[in-house]
Amino acid sequence: MKTLFLTQTQVKNLISPAEANEAVEKAFEAFGKGQTQMPPKSYLFYTPFKGDLRTMPAYIESIKATGVKIVNVHVNNNEKNLPTVMATIVLNDPETGFPIAIMDGTFLTALRTGAAGAVAIKYLARENAESIGFVGCGVQAYTQIDLSVLMRKFKIIKAYDIDENRRNQFLHYVEKNHGLKPEGSNDIKIACNADVVTTTTPVSTPIVKNEWIKAGTHINAIGADAPGKQELESAILLRSKIIVDNWDQASHSGEINVPLEKNVIARENIYGELGTIVAGLMPGRTSNDEITVFDSTGLAVQDIAVAKKVYERALIQNLGISLEILK
Ligand SMILES: NC(=O)c1ccc[n+]([C@@H]2O[C@H](COP(=O)([O-])OP(=O)(O)OC[C@H]3O[C@@H](n4cnc5c(N)ncnc54)[C@H](O)[C@@H]3O)[C@@H](O)[C@H]2O)c1
């Protein structure tokens, strides 16, 4: 038996944004129906090197997909010409445990995060949403926009980044690739005045103010994915319907972790999990006026679902290198 090895370039060519959205939506549905196994992420800390390593296992029975993502965050890696975040996904055969594929998961991490944002927009944003605002224009912003545009007919893009060059590059990309019209200046208040607001910064002190968020907005809070991180003023959460990807992860490390820790909000303030809504077990948005917040921390089921899709495609297209790993 052989194990298929796939590089980042090969992975990129094997899955489209629409396919990623579909795979991740199905993963959320299976998760919502309780048809998955997903133990909590486990962490190793390399404190002297300012880094950590996380393992993220999952099993989605309905699509016979199982495996583990191994992902690091090393904040000083730029000095060594390496990305801050690098991921590897090992896919196994659930019947035998055999490692059927080992692939780069770095691009897939950004892709599946974009897909989670897109699925949240599908179920939570107003049907007539036309403008999308970004706070933070780094790596995640690109996959968020690429996958979000498939869910609503956005016409206007607004953006803010402390690094104005990054903002300008992002707006240029969005206008060129998706035809959205850039509006406003590099002003966070303007970026937050949109039908959908996507936040993708690594901040630990909230930067999005309550007074800037109008009724009917949907917010994808993507940036907070570790304890202590928070992008939105807690007052926003108090007037919003809060949807998390997973209570255990979000309460530990998502947008809600600090407000929970400070007792500004409690578990009763959380409406539910996105998977439950996708599975049709509870409604998503129920009025045009409500503010909805999706707190994304990133689930292993998202990674394994997109990796399985990539693997199936690679077999059809005969891509990658197969090696007898047990030899
Ligand atoms: N939810 C998830 O599943 C998930 C997945 C991957 C990454 N993340 C998180 O998303 C965040 C962004 O990741 P990335 O890969 O895009 O990083 P990145 O470094 O590529 O981009 C971050 C951007 O935020 C900007 N920024 C920083 N501080 C800011 C501030 N105060 N105001 C405005 N802009 C500011 C930076 O200039 C940069 O352009 C990180 O916190 C990361 O951990 C979450």
Automatic annotation (TrEMBL):
EC number: 1.4.1.1
Catalytic activity: L-proline + NAD(+) = 1-pyrroline-2-carboxylate + NADH + H(+); L-alanine + NAD(+) + H2O = pyruvate + NH4(+) + NADH + H(+); L-proline + NADP(+) = 1-pyrroline-2-carboxylate + NADPH + H(+)
GO biological process: alanine metabolic process
GO cellular component, one term: cytoplasm
Keywords carried by this UniProt record: NAD, Nucleotide-binding, Oxidoreductase
Sequence positions that bind NAD(+): 112, 139-140, 223-225, 229, 296
Organism in which the protein naturally occurs: Candidatus Fischerbacteria bacterium RBG_13_37_8
Family classification: Belongs to the ornithine cyclodeaminase/mu-crystallin family. Archaeal alanine dehydrogenase subfamily.
Main function: Catalyzes the NAD(+)-dependent oxidative deamination of L-alanine to pyruvate, and the reverse reaction, the reductive amination of pyruvate.
Cleavable signal peptide: none
Keyword Oxidoreductase appears in the UniProt entry: yes
GO MF term set: alanine dehydrogenase activity; NAD binding
Name of protein: Putative alanine dehydrogenase
Active site: 69 (proton donor/acceptor)
